[in-house]
Design a protein that fits this description.
The protein has helices spanning 26-37, 67-71, 106-114, 137-142, 181-192, 217-230, 235-238, 259-266; strands spanning 14-20, 42-44, 53-60, 75-83, 85-87, 96-99, 118-122, 131-132, 135-136, 152-165, 168-175, 196-206, 253-257, 281-286, 291-298, 304-309. With 314 residues, the protein is of the alpha+beta class. The strands form 4 sheets. Strands 1, 2, 3, 4, 7, 10, 11 and 12 form an 8-stranded mixed sheet that branches. A 4-stranded mixed sheet has the order 13-14-15-16. α1 (26-37) packs parallel to α6 (217-230). It starts with 13 loop residues before the first strand and ends in a 5-residue tail after the last strand.
Length: 314
Amino acid sequence: MGRRTRHYSRSVDGIILLDKPTGITSNAALQKVKRIFFAKKAGHTGALDPLATGMLPICFGEATKFSQFLLYSDKRYRVVAKLGERTNTSDSDGEVVKTRDVHVNLEQLEASISTFLGDTMQLPSMFSALKYQGRPLYEYMREGIEVPRVARKISVYEITLLRFDAGEVEMEVHSSRGTYIRTIVDDLGEILGCGAHVIALRRIGVSNYSSEDMVTLEQLESLLVEAREANIRSHELLDPLLLPLDSAVRDLVEVNLSDLVACSVRHGQAVHAPNIPYEGLVRMTVGGERTFIGVGVIDTDGMVEPCRLVNLRQ
């Protein structure tokens, strides 16, 4: 038997905002990026359907400790819906199950869209990645099995009509985590009485991240080629694209600690600190350089207790 080839991997810390292409799963995109960076550890922060494109934050190394803050954050989407056809998946990857004539005017459409604003209860699609007894719902659906689902509270903060022509509706949606845009589109089609499904979906925002910071797989792969041609290590060109660890928790109140107090925090101790809020999570930094060391939580005694700490590499 021949020897197995050992693949080079390295410790990488930071966040890349991938502009996921259509036609592949989020996990497939993650694995491609992980290989490009030769990263030992990486994870994404909320899957996009194969049909969807756009912002997929990928956390490397120590950044994975803070991925939950992006998973639970608000999202922004642009969606194009086709009226007149309802599909079994609520998007164009599914089969058309009902076709109806479209008799919708702008006034009716705007009134119907406004009903989704605010807090509502949404029943997840059977083609979602939510799990039931350890398996994603879409696996049951592919086997023709429908399992119990529980409606979940979602919040739609803003929904803007961008275009309405030729039986298509384009909207921008700002919503809470766990909101299924294709379910909104399916529900909208039923309210309008004609049916609807998603034909294009793009995530344009996660938390405080700007779409201008996204990079494509093609851009990353071209940097690999450029590094090879210049005879330099690829990380010299790739790593400058990484966003810092604390960008995932930028919205948290900052608590700046002295070196002495930070030492106690790193040993797992709760500490007193100036100018801390009364409750909640905080972003902890150290000294004048405001080096990020992790996330803390205010305990019942009004002290900062470490919650997630950065492992400072030597």
